[in-house]
Specification:
0% strand, mainly alpha, 187 residues
């Protein structure tokens, strides 16, 4: 990069825009994390109480953070190589950090509030659908199945009982001793 001020100013402006885009990327990963830690399913307080849920949330947060930093590093490297011919300048890093800080403290907070509201609304909508629509339908199906199974088991029991009674009556006609002798011979 030469010493022309217009190129330096455009480089700084592009690095601030890059920082802003890092803020957007970070918000995408934050929304993913927020959707995993939906209020009512796994909140921050519950995360500390339950080791299994806390471990899952911590793994998801760790993976999202690692992916964000890898993507940010790759995008920064491509930006520096493209805009400054591979010369790393502190101005690019400061501009990116400034753009990220401005986004994070202004638009990022607004996006967080809106996404938190949307995720919570979707969670409660799904919960309402499950509790008020699907559960009664499923319990009705299980009730019908339970009634059908109880009737068929009663029918099977009564048929088995009738068959046993017929066997015993036929044994009684022939005499139990003959049946017992045959049984002893078979063993």
């Amino acid at each position: 990069m030469g010493y022309r001020y217009d190129q330096i100013y455009s480089f700084i402006a592009y690095s601030v825009i890059l920082g802003f885009s890092f803020g957007v990327l970070y918000d995408i990963f934050r929304i993913i994390r927020m959707s995993v830690c939906v209020p009512g399913i796994i909140s921050a307080k519950e995360k500390n109480k339950s080791n299994k849920n806390g471990f899952i949330v911590n793994v998801i947060v760790f993976v999202c953070d690692i992916l964000f930093f890898i993507l940010a590093a790759c995008i920064s490297a491509i930006f520096v190589f493209h805009a400054n011919n591979g010369n790393i300048r502190i101005i690019a890093m400061i501009g990116s950090l400034a753009g990220f800080a401005v986004y994070y403290n202004t638009v990022g907070r607004l996006v967080t509030l809106i996404s938190h509201f949307i995720i919570k609304s979707i969670y409660y909508l799904i919960r309402f659908i499950i509790k008020r629509i699907l559960l009664p339908f499923v319990s009705l199906i299980f009730g019908v199945l339970r009634h059908f199974i109880s009737k068929t088991s009663f029918l099977c029991d009564s048929l088995y009982t009738k068959r046993c009674i017929r066997k015993r009556i036929s044994w009684a006609k022939r005499g139990f001793k003959q049946k017992m002798k045959r049984k002893d011979v078979e063993l």
